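quick one, two chains, predict together pls
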Amino acid sequence: MNQVKLEVRNLTKTYPGTVALSDFSAVMQGGNVYALLGKNGSGKSTLVKCISGAVIPTSGEMFLNEQKLQFRSPMDAFDAGIAIVYQELSLVLDFTVAENILIGRYFKKGPGGSVIDWKRTNEKAAEILAALRIDIPVTAKVSSLSVGQRQMIEIAKAMSYNPSVLILDEPTSALAQHEIESLFKVIHQSREQGVIVIFITHKLNEIRGVADFVTVIRDSRFVGTIPIAEANPKTLVDMMFGETQILSRPENLSVSEEVVMEVKNLSRKHHFSNVSFKLRKGEILGIAGMLGSGRSELLRSIFGADPVDSGTISIKGTVITQPHIPTMKRLGMAMTPENRKDEGLVQMLSIKDNLCYASLRAIAPLGFLTNRRQKPIVQRWIRELQIKVASADLPVSSLSGGNQQKVVVGNWLNTEPSIIFFDEPSRGIDVQAKQQVFQIMWDLSRKGLSVIFVSTELEELLEVCHRILIMDRGRIEKETTPERTTLDELYALCMEA
Amino acid sequence: MSAAPQTKRFDISALALEIILLVIIAFLCFYARGFATWDNFMNILRNASTTGIIAFGMTFVIIAGEIDLSVGSAIAFYGCMLAVITDKLAAKGYPLLPVILLAVAVCFIIAVLTGMFTGWVRHRFSVPTFITTLAWMAALRGGGYLLTNSFPVTPFPEWFNFFGSGYVFGIPFQAIIFLLLFGVTWFISRFTTFGRSVYAIGGNAESARLSGINVLQKRMIIMTLTSVFSVISAIMVASQIQAGNPTVGTSWEFTVISACVIGGVSLMGGKGRIWGTFVGVIFLEIILNGMTLLNVDEYWQYVARAVLILGAVLIYQSQEIRQKD
C-alpha cells in the first residue's frame, strides 16, 4: 500500500472583515494520528472545513497523494476519500447498527434487487466492525447505545468508505473517561489501515493517549507540528497562546465584604457534586473549566432551570433547597443562558418584546401591557446598552450576535436583579461587542451587583473577574485570582485540576 | 456578522387578504341580489359567530404552538349536557330558569377542567395536544350520544331561543357576543402580559421558561380558552335548534382552524393576530353567503374553502421568503 500523503499549501480563507485561516501550510502522512490543537476561534474548524469541502478556500492549494484537490461541496471531498465525523452525530436512532453503517448501500436480492438482503447486510456490517475491533452487535438499535458507542459506529461508517483521511471533530467532548479509552482504541485501529487521522481537540491531557503528532494553530496561522514525545503541556500551551497580552479590569472595581449568595454542598447527579462557594456584593466571579466540567449545569441548577439533588443556596437569609425560576427571580437572580439563540431569545418576535419577557410583571403589574409602558423601558436599554437597531419592532433575528446578546442582558436588567449569571456571553460575537459586554459587567459591579461569569475563553476570565473558580468533572478544584495567575498557569490548572 | 438593520416600511402585501375580501364584497354588492342589505349583513355576522367565537380562542391555542381538535364535538356535548340536565331537573318540577343556569355552570366547570387537563398533560408528559384533543373529540362526541341516547332532547322554554335567534336593537344577539369577544380577545392578545407570554411560548418555550414565565399555567389557561368558548357556542347552537343534539358541530373544528389559518395564524406557533382570524372567519362566511345568493351549488363552498386556505398560506409564505432575502 502506498503511503497516503495530504499536503496543504498556503491555504487562506477570508470573510468580510476577518481572516479565518491565513497562509496555512502543513504535510500529513498516512498511518498517523494528528491532533489538531488550538483555542476557540483559532481557525481549527475553518481548516477542517476547507479540507472536507464545506468551505471553499479563498486561496491556496491542497494535494492528496500529489493530486490537486478542488472541492465545490462536501460530496466532492467525500468522493476524493476525505471523511469527517462531526460532533453532532448523524445516525438514525431507530435504525440498527448495520442499517446505519450501510445506509443507502444495502445488499439486495429478489427480482430486480427489490428486496433488502438483511443477512448479507448484517454480515458485511459485522465485518466492518470486526476490522476496527468494535464489539457491538450489528442488530442493536442505535438508540440503545451510549454516546461513546455511537461515536464508534460513526467512525465505522466513515471507515467503511475506505477513506484516505478521517477527520474527527472533538469526538471526546461528550464522553466519560472509560468511553474515551475505548474510542482511542478504535482510532488506533483505523490508523493501522494506513489512514491519516486528524483529531480535533482542545483537551491537552488526552492528546498523549491518542496522537502521534500534534499540529498547533494559533490566530489562524500554522505554528508547528511536533512529535508526541516532544509535546509536554508547557510547550503546547506556549505554542497555542504565544505572547498574548492580557488586558486587566479597570482599577476602580471594588468588592464589599457582604456575602450576597452562599452555595453549600450543591450536587446534581452526573453533573456536579459538593459545590460550595460564596459570592460577595459587587464581585465578578469567574468559573473556569473545560467543556463538560459542569460549569453551565451548575449555573442552570442554581437558577432553577434544572433540578438540584442536594445542598442549599442562601440568598439574603433565605435558604433554598429546590430552586425554581420564578422564586429565584423574586430573590433578585438573573441568567443569560449559554445558548442565546435557542434559550435566550424568541427569534421571530420583536426586539421590543424580547426586551420585556423577564419583567412582564414589573412592567405591567395588573397584566395590562401598553406601548406607553413598554416604550420608555425599551428605549432605555437600547440607549444604555448601545444596541444598534433601526426599529425596536423588527424581529430580534435581524440583529447581529453581539446586539442579540445585549437584548438578552437588557431583558434581565429590567428585573432589577442583584445577582446576574453570564453563561458564555461572548460566544459568537465580535471583539468590539465582547468589550462592550465586559464593560456592562464592570458597570453592574460598580452599581453593587454581583456577577458570575462562565467562559471557555480563559483570557476573558483573567481580564474581567475578581476571582476565578476552577471546575473539573463537576467539582470545584481550585480557586485563584487574575493577579496571582498567568494564562498558561490557568490553562494548566484547568487541564490538570 | 452584523446584518444591516432593515428599516420598517409600509408593505401593501401585508393587507393582501383584506384587499381581496373587499374586492369580493364589492363584486357581490353588484352582482348578488340581496347581498348589500342590512339584514343580510346581520345574517352573515350571526352565521359567523358560532365558529368565529371559538376561532378567537383557537388563535391563542395555535399561536402557543398547540391545537384543539375537540371543539366540534364539544359543541355537541355541551349542548346535550345542557338539554339533559334541564330535562331531568325540569321533570322533577324545578323551575326552568335556575335549572338552566345550573346546567350552564356545570358545562363551564367541565370545560375548564378538560382544558386544564389537556394543558397539564401537554406540559407534564409532553403529550401533544393534537393527541389529547383527538381523544376529547371522540370522547365528547360519544358522551353526547350517551347522554341523549342519540335522540335530540328538547326541554327548552321559548325564551331560551333568544340566545340563538334573538335581537337587541336590530342586531342579532349572537353577533353582539361575537363582536364583543372579538374585542376582548384582541385586547388580550395585544395589551396584556398573558397575550405576550402566549407568543413567547409559541415562539420558543424554552426561552420563555428561562425568562421566568410560568409555562404550565399559561398552557392550562390557553387550552381552557377553546373549551370555554365552545360552551358559549354550544349554548347558542342549542338555543337556535331549541334542543340538545349529539350530531351538531361535525367537522366544525376544521372550519375554525381554517379561519385561523386563512387569517395568517402560523401552525408552527409564535405568529398570528386576532384581527387576522376575524377576517378569516368573515371571509369564509361571505363566500358561503355569496354563493347561496348567486345560486351556486352549495358543495362548491368546499372547493372555495380549499382555494382560500391554500391561496392564503401561499401568500403568507411568499411574504416570509421575500422578507428573508
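The longest helix of chain A spans residues 177-192.
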